[in-house]
């Protein structure tokens, strides 16, 4: 087989793929009409998961689950946009890891707004200026984002979905020779997380490390001068058109950040693999065993707790706390209902959503 004949077969399959995708979009358009006439929710993560699970389970070709997921999440994003163009706010600037997380869920065709603070993302969802907001909630090496956790208590928003993305850094520069580089821009945390690459590559060289407020800003600066470089996300290097000289330069490939997708009054149907986040403001936490007894109820119902964070209640000069608790399962399931029935007044459910690895 020649390259030309293989390419011509690929062309013909691509034609068929496009025809099928257009047929799919015709159906999606009808789903959109139906949903709009009944005021039904457009974004249904549990249905998307069901489709990906089904395709993965019946698949016997070369595509692995991650590949199927990447392609179909983009198809769903285009579908949702066709059903109802939705605006998505994320913690900016453009090219941030949160932008990358937002794009991984809402695709290339959504209407994005980069906002400067986590609070402004919450507020734009709250006021209805955008339908969804994407914020970072924790990093598996650095811990929780306190501001985000506190705003979950302060504001009245739901969690529609979670996204976890590996934090990969790239070394982007217009320079072809490391010895020509005089300044490397990045965020201090990124310098820390890429320290091995930096000491191996710049040992004996004169480059100065310049901390800036975001890795996107670093990419922007590196785009302006050929003898500089940025340690930044892939998406930032792409956005500012700075060539990537080295990819995945982080010390640990275990570095992952978890993001939440926020919406107003959002409820998912059970998917079979859900997680539930709740806020617990337990009465009388000064008396012994109140928290322990509450947590034991999860154990008694055989519910696996995945997270518990305590945060100050800030109700005067006291040392009282509220808790963000996450557990496996969907709020509609009887075990969880049992606990909620008992503690209804003290507990607020933020959402049940598909649990991702
Ligand atoms: O099944 C639906 O509810 C749809 O709106 C269709 C569709 C799809 O493209 O398959 C699109 C968006 C939803 O998030 C889930 C699935």
Describe the structure in your own words.
With 357 residues, the chain is α/β, with parallel strands linked by helices. The protein has four domains: 1-40; 45-167 and 255-269, 3-Layer(aba) Sandwich (D-Maltodextrin-Binding Protein, domain 2); 170-246, Periplasmic binding protein-like II (D-Maltodextrin-Binding Protein, domain 2); 274-350, ACT domain (Alpha-Beta Plaits). 41% of the residues lie in helices and 25% in strands. Strand 1, helix 4 (97-106) and strand 2 form a beta-alpha-beta unit. The radius of gyration is 23 Å and the shape is globular. The mean pLDDT is 93. Prephenic acid is lined by residues 28, 31, 43-44, 47-48, 51, 76, 79-80, 83.
Radius of gyration: 23 Å
Domain count: the total is 4
Unreliable segments of 5+ consecutive residues: none
**How many β strands by DSSP?**
15
Write down the CATH topology of the largest domain. D-Maltodextrin-Binding Protein, domain 2
The SSE order reads HHHEHEHEEHEEEHHEHEHEEEHEEHE
Taken from the alpha-carbon principal axes, the silhouette is: globular
Overall pLDDT, averaged?
A: 93
Strand content: 15-25%
Number of helices: 12
